[in-house]
Amino acid sequence: MTISQVWKQSNVYDRFTSETLVHGVVSSILEWNGLKIAFMGLVEEDWLDTLGTVDKNNIKYIDYVETADRLSAELRDKGVDLGIALTHTRWHNDVRLASESNGVDLILGGHGHEYGVLEVNGILIVKSGSEFRYLSKSDGVKDQDGTFKYSCEKIATMKDLEEDAEIQQSVKGYTDNMQHMFGKVLCHIEVALDGHYAAVRRAECSLGNLIIYAMLEATRAEVAFLNSGTLRFDLLHPVGPLTMHDLLQILHINDLVLVVEATGQQLFEGLENGVRNYPALDGRFPQVSGIQFGFDPNGKPGHRVIAETVKV
After folding, report:
1. Residue that is last in its domain, among 129, 156, 183
2. What residue ranges of the chain have pLDDT lower than 70?
3. pTM for this structure?
């Protein structure tokens, strides 16, 4: 069984070219064991706000349930037996897809950082977590009445698993070039750095303070902002030396640090944007330095920051 390595993107289009985002394939059909299995790729609209290189005004977004229904009907007409949705949405949107769509049989979801399996409306939703810590093996068994029943096995990607030789060799080519850097000690920390998503994406935290203070020191700026979704560690780093390898685990994405001039109003709006979805773990919560603020988590989104508490 071979699956081509291409992006599946079914519900976001470029307004100017009418092509799917990243030229993704809208759907594909895999024939296996006498069955035709279809795949589609669906994202939630809020995800578009996280794309720093894409202007949302240039994008046409189609609701993922609407898209799933349309594609499912088209694919069934082509003789498809099973429809699998590959999603990049949060839990509540995967639940909505399972509850409202017609024709989707299995949902394999990303975007959520915690492992979980949930059956909704007879449809299995599988979230395999983050950082490649787990794999999921989903089995479908066809009953005599033609319907399928699904089960899921959680597999921890532990060191005792046999590595794929080809992939191991490819990775080695990169790590060998960086090995001399990994052990370099950058600093010694006196308190544990909490990198768990539930901590960094909802409040000021020790890990966020370390990174944001370093940004302020390096740039000599007066105020520093960092969206907490940049911190990808999801572990507790113990007291002791912090190495380059540790830092690369924390900062997976090589984002640029920019120094810009901003008005007080712009800073205020940035804070509002950072807490508008609290307590959702969507990565926009701001880790800050050089500024302090308070907010009302029960306030209306866009009106949560308490102006009297903002101090630079």
Report:
1. 156
2. 1-5, 159
3. 0.72
145 and 170 inside one domain: no
Question: How many Å apart are CA 198 and CA 202, to the nearest integer?
Answer: 6
Q: What is the pLDDT of residues 5-54, one digit of tens each?
A: 678 999 999 999 999 988 899 999 999 888 999 999 999 998 887 777 78
- Position 31 scores a pLDDT of 92
Provide the domain limits for residue 200.
Answer: 165-309
Can you tell me which residue has the tokens 């010694």?
A: 188
